Fold this protein.
Amino acid sequence: MSIEEAREVLAIEEQGLAAVREGIGEEFNQAVERILECPSRVVITGIGKSGIIGQKISATLNSTGTPSFFLHPVEAMHGDLGMVAASDVVIAISYSGETTELNALLVSLKKRGTSIIAMTGGRESTLARASDIVLDIQIPMEACPLGLAPTASTTATLAMGDALAVVLLRRNRFKAEDFRENHPGGSLGERLKVSVSKVMLKGEAVPSVLSGVTVAESVIVLNRENLGAVLIIDEKLKVLGIITDGDVRRAVAEGVDLKNVRVGKLMTASPITIREKMQAVDALSIMQQHEITILPIVGDQGEMIGILHLHDLLGKGEFRFLV
């Protein structure tokens, strides 16, 4: 019973995210441009659950190259408003758009000429009408059966904040080394300081097959090592190509006979490779630039030395490619 209820909650959350995704329009572009043009900082404000989500959005913006801070609406009305400059951009968060404390703050913000971007599900709300740009986070329903506790709406708000941060990251050409500089004390920063040889897989842990085998045979190795790719090599261990999970899925969808087709027909020839002395941070930049998760490590003659996977480099869940 509990499992089914949990699945129902997650399904409602998914529906909320889908609705927000489909609702993204030109206002999102306007918000991105307004923030990029901002000469100072992005101020996030909200109260209650929206405030908690706002704090996380502010932290994400800071770590990905967009200076930001969180401002509590009540504290703002008691002196902290002095932290906001006319040149700042304020992102005001309220799902209903009718939060009294937040809307009271908007009056003072507008007087000083601060740009206001609303994140709200209330398209005709007081917040929406007072804002320059409105990011619509309206969802079909909350996961709370009483419709009282913010659940799917806070998930949607957080996701919209992540979308903003990632798009801004890309527009600002924010690199992995910049991320490391913002996280000097973290485990991610430590991992990125080392050479590739310290984090790569080598020996029998490297999924590889000779160029003459069938795709079906390569899939056996692909499944066994579970890295998402298999390297194609010749008798001298020279890396000739790579086959990924995606290549196999596309081949199956196209009706390719995996038992009779050789890997050479399916592989990506001459894949991007790196040397083992390269710094991990530079390898990550290459992965980010080409949107790949696997890098073969080769020697002077192109021979296979090892393989680098994104998870071994960063740890699961600490980095996401742009979409």
